[in-house]
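Section 3.1: Structural characterization of target chains.
Under the original work plan, the team committed to producing a structural model for every single-chain target entering the pipeline before any wet-lab resources were allocated. The record below documents one such target. The sequence was received from the expression subgroup and is listed exactly as submitted; it comprises 138 residues.
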Amino acid sequence: MGYIIGFDYGLKNIGVSIGQTITSTASEHPSLKARDGIPDWQVLENLIKQWQPDCAVVGLPLNMDGTESELCVRARKFANRLHGRFGITTQLMDERLSTQEAKQEAAERGHKGDYGQNPIDAIAARLILESWLNQHTK
């Protein structure tokens, strides 16, 4: 079974999801804390060792008009570091509207909107990875 790991890159939290290519499904995983966009690389290494993914998908936070945001540069750098540190193939995935979709889904689950205390990054990571799986596994 081939696993894919998905990330919703952020400066304070990095959402994580794990997907499988056979079923084209993904599930949420606890988010990683980050300091100015830098995760605890040891925690990330443990996650990579645990799941041994075939590839990593990193959400690319494009502006609505398709231009790159400032965060795009950092998300690309994160993807490059994943590849450099762990030798894992990385793919970038347009993540426009994933945050809004994640907020809507969270609200349906009863989330109170306190995103600082109760982040929704893992939901966004799952949505990003599901979109990638839908495009690449059919």
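The first strand starts at residue 3 and ends at 8.
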